[in-house]
Amino acid sequence: MLDFLLTSDAIMALLTLTFLEIILGIDNIVFISIAANKLPEHQRGKATNVGLLLAMVQRIILLFFVSFLVGLSEPFYSIKTSWLSVGISWQAIILFAGGLFLIYKSTSEIREKVENPSHDEDQVKSKPIKSLSNAVVQIMVIDFIFSIDSILTAVGMTNGLHPNHNYTLILMIIAVIISIGIMIGFANPIRKFIDTHPSVQILGLAFLILIGFMLITEAAHLSETELFGKTVGAIPKGYLYFAIAFSIFVEFINFKTVKNKKS
């Protein structure tokens, strides 16, 4: 187990996944803060911390559930025609549907953040909260919604790294715990940084489109799909890591350029 966690692939997946979990968790922090700010001041910090801890618990539970489904790789139905051959399994269904969901969700989020960035916040602000228990219930609902794309991202980043699904499950759990811990300790600085540099969150959502596409091709590859006589191959995760690292490097250069111009 330790040998796997210390491999370059596992370390790169852990770093990339933790970064993406934090970026994806920004909206979660904002909405939890909005819900908590409706409470008396002495309860706000408690509501925020409880909300983030609940987010961690919900994501870990969902990780177990989704990982179980992804592990069901035996085909239960096959399609064979003159131009298409595919063995359908629960693993392929989860990966394919998850990929489509990530592409749809991230594209919609990018559009909404560019054209109407305060839409979701206005909806949360309009919901009344009268007690700490009400706030916790609303925070749990918000956490669940934001957990879905987080879990699919984790599956996309780690699927296929090791033949033993338990190893990749532990890697995903570690990334979730680290990211939630960072958000609990640095929620305000992270939120202020994203407010100052909104392009970072847009960049994170753009990464989800790549991960979504990779999940779709992974589903086709694992179900041994043949299209017009051509087998669909898996996209090496190294390509994804390189694209993300290069994009972050370009964004860092942009930060430095803008900062130098202001100074």
UniProtKB/TrEMBL annotation:
Topology of this chain in the membrane: Multi-pass membrane protein
Keywords: Membrane, Transmembrane, Transmembrane helix
Pfam family, one: TerC
Membrane-spanning segments: 12-35, 47-70, 82-104, 135-155, 167-187, 199-219, 239-258
Localization: Membrane
Cellular component, GO annotation: membrane
Chief localization: membrane
Protein origin, superkingdom: Bacteria
InterPro entries: Integral_membrane_TerC, MFS_trans_sf
Family, per entry: Belongs to the TerC family.
Official protein name in the record: Putative tellurium resistance membrane protein TerC
Protein source organism: Winogradskyella eximia
